[in-house]
Amino acid sequence: MAGTAVAMGLVTAPAAEASPAEASALAQYYQQQMSWAPCEPGTPPPGIPPEEWEKLWRGMECATVTVPMDYREPDNGRLSIAVSRREATDPAKRQGVLLLNPGGPGGSGMLMPNNLAENNEVADSFDLIGFDPRGVGRSTRLQCEAGQWLERQTRPTDDRFPAIAAAALDRERACQRAGGGLRPHISTANTARDMDVIRAALGEKKINYLGFSYGTYLGAVYGSLFPGGLNRSVLDSSMHPDWLYYEQSKQQAVAARENFDAWAAWVGERNDTYHLGDSAQQVRANLETLRERLAAEPVPWPEQPDYVQIDGTLFDMMLGYETPYRAGWALFAELVIKIKNAVGGELPADAGKALATFADYAIPETHSGVFPTVTCEADWSADLNTYFDQMRVFRERYPYGPGASAAEPTECTFRSFTPPEPITDLKRDGYPVGVVVQAEFDPSTQYDGGPAMASRLENNLISVADEGAHGLYGRNDCATRKIDDYLINGVLPGSHIVCAGTSPPDVPVDGSATRSAPRPTSSLEERAADLIETSKLDRTF
Fold it and tell me: Which residues, 6 or more positions from 277, have their beta carbon under 8 angstroms from its beta carbon?
């Protein structure tokens, strides 16, 4: 069903925000029609077979909408926004559209309708709508020249600080050279405005919304600017409304330390099994000693000559990035033992393959121009000593995962463009109560962001206790049921409820009369692959 946007006059104007004169200038965008056709998969990314890539797009339709580059001057340049759709599977149950965003900023949402439709009841009731935000993927792209990237260090010494700052400055200049004219217009507020154009082009008076990670902030901005265009909203793994964006980055290292401490406490209670220490403090002390040994004598990867060796920095990253997933705690403890025993030698092949499996599933960092542009829409300190002081704190207190790199200066420290408007004042005034869901040990958007966003918007909050997943919808059964009931039936979960997270493996604590669980018969590599599949760690939202 194409071209329904002009069928109803009430959906062909901005849902809010624009003045009468602006609404008139924007009418050409709000009155456009979308021409749907089966999605063309295009060239698959490296490593994905063509038949698998084609399957990911099967059953979806694609279209584009045109939006102004600058909403204040709608005739001064246009951008193309790519949109995907999977129509509701049960027309009798259809309740409208559910617009999706995976986060980022800079994440592509084109495949989300198919990804979300798998074994999901919302696919019966809503047209699932994905899109590439302005600057991203199949939309008009913001390209940056390649700047200088230094090898990340979790505990850089003071003499490295000037080089880290110089590299950030170089990347900012490189991005400005290539994308300078477009960068001021790549922002959360403008992406929200694009969403409202999509709403009108779809012929919908209101959208429903599901956003993950940065997509939670995007959804909150949309509701603040266009309250009349938003119905039900779910903000999964929320950013903190007051941490834009430097503090949000630092909190990733804080969350990594929290996850490491939880894992170390679990391992310490099972010293008879793992022999890494009989308390969290002892485990950490022993692993600090191991880290020092790895820094002096890195361990090579068997059969992986292109991988960096396991040195102190990589070990810090592992301790932060692999400990959030409770179901994998026993496997990771075994891999740490393998690393410990390999100092001065080489990892067993199976352990190397398991660690490589984890490394391969990790979502690569984006070096497109969108991330270092959108994150610069808020002001960052230009005082380098502010960052250097924080880096000293973080290399001591929060060295795991990103470590001190979470506190280092970025392109935004040297921002070379002036945002044309302040960041949006978040509020919920004129659209229904929504739902925020947050894991207690979220490694990417630290837990405090959830309660803070729920409080700011006066939304309901679902907390998932003792859980380290980022992106809970479709991963946590309890949270998924509550969200489905809200999206499909409009039933709110309650002002604040708590769901149980994933349980760690059944490994008895020391001194327990409980019989030990049977030893796994599959290889470490097979167990790593199974963990990724069952915990959906390869999902991009």
Answer: 264, 267, 268, 271, 283, 284, 285, 286
Residues 14-39 have pLDDT tens digits of 766 666 666 778 999 999 999 999 99
Q: Which of 405, 442, 444, 463 is catalytic?
A: 442
Q: How far apart are CA 219 and CA 215, in angstroms?
A: 6
Q: Indicate which residue of 139, 470, 484, 535 is catalytic.
A: 470
d(CA 24, CA 88): 33
Task: Report CA dihedral (419, 421, 423, 429) to the nearest 10 degrees.
Answer: -160
Q: Which of 208, 179, 529 is nearest to 371 (CA)?
A: 179
| Active-site residue identified among 84, 108, 213, 224 | 213
Whether residue 139 lies in the annotated active site = no
* pTM score over 0.90: yes
Q: HSE, CB side, 13 Å, CA atoms: give it for residue 357.
A: 21
DSSP code, position 269: T
pLDDT tens, residue by residue, 131-171: 999 999 999 999 888 889 999 999 999 999 999 999 999 99
Q: How far is Cα 290 from Cα 268, in angstroms, rounded to an integer?
A: 16
In angstroms, how far is the first alpha carbon of the chain from the final one? 28
Hey, is 383 helix, strand or coil?
A: coil
- Of 353, 345, 280, the closest CA to residue 319 belongs to 280
Q: At a CB cut-off of 8 Å and minimum separation 6, what does 413 contact?
A: 165, 168, 169, 172, 380, 381, 382, 384, 387
Give, for 498, the enclosing helix (H) or strand (E).
Answer: strand 496-500
- What does the CA dihedral 221, 227, 233, 237 come to, rounded to 10 degrees? 20
Residue 496 catalytic?
no
User: SS in 3 state form for 189-257?
Assistant: HHHHHHHHHHHHHCCCCCEEEEEECHHHHHHHHHHHHCHHHEEEEEEECCCCCCCCCHHHHHHHHHHHH
- The number of helix segments (H) and strand segments (E) in the chain equals 18, 10
Residue 381 known to be catalytic: no
**CA-wise closest residue to 99 among 138, 125, 131:** 131
